[in-house]
Amino acid sequence: MGSVMSLSESFQLSYTSVVILMMILSVSAVTSGLSGFGFSAIGAASLWLLPPSLGIPLLMALSSANQLMSLKQIRSDMKPLRQWWPNGPAPYILGGLLGVPLGLEILHSLPTPVLMVCFGAFLITYAGYSIFRRPKQRPNTGGWPSSVLVGLLGGVIGGFTAFPGALVVIWIGRSGLPKEESRAIVQPYIFAMQLVSLCMLAVQHPSTFDARFWSLFATAVVIVLPSTLLGVRIYKSLSDMNFRRICFTLLGTSGCAIFSKGLGALGIGTALALLAH
Fold first, then answer.
1. Where primarily located (predicted)?
2. 20/47 Cα distance (integer angstroms)
């Protein structure tokens, strides 16, 4: 109670706003603990309460803590590091490391709102189709060259959408892998991309991580970690089919968030013109 009141005073937010913020982050953590991804997609609602300069780094840091906690809970499903290549997460991570700089270049040189609208619409459509599609009977990820390419494209997309895991989730979903193998690839990939992004942010904008940031992080992480554990518990009770449906539902939700963000950046007139075509 005292920490919530101090946050309310420090960030000039009402007590109610601080409680809502913590609820958003808690739901984000449960969802990500359950599916292995999507913390920032749900947590983006917190940007209604916090400025992006503070909210985005906070989401990145809390999402990293969320991923680390989840990975510890499912470590029995993970392959040893020496087996991450060629059929584990290593090819995806390699591709992602190559793709992130390209995505950041796109962010600064191309009309990213249009790209976000198109990619968001694709995620919504694909997720809706995949929820009802029967999974493959014989899992197949296509080998490590395909994995590197998917990871690279995921890194590129993550550079301008802040959601690098979207393409990897789609690829793993269509491959028909069991839920344990799916998370053992998706989560290390997302965690690696988050660490890279945080390191780049720390080098380029070190003032981001000031006393206000750490005060908010220290309060929120106490809520995020137990919520993550709850999500992982729910995940362990799910069948492969229900896990798959939840993942694609969350993927569609993320698509809606990206789509809306792109429309907002375009403005009403430009967005309507784009949708008309």
1. membrane
2. 12
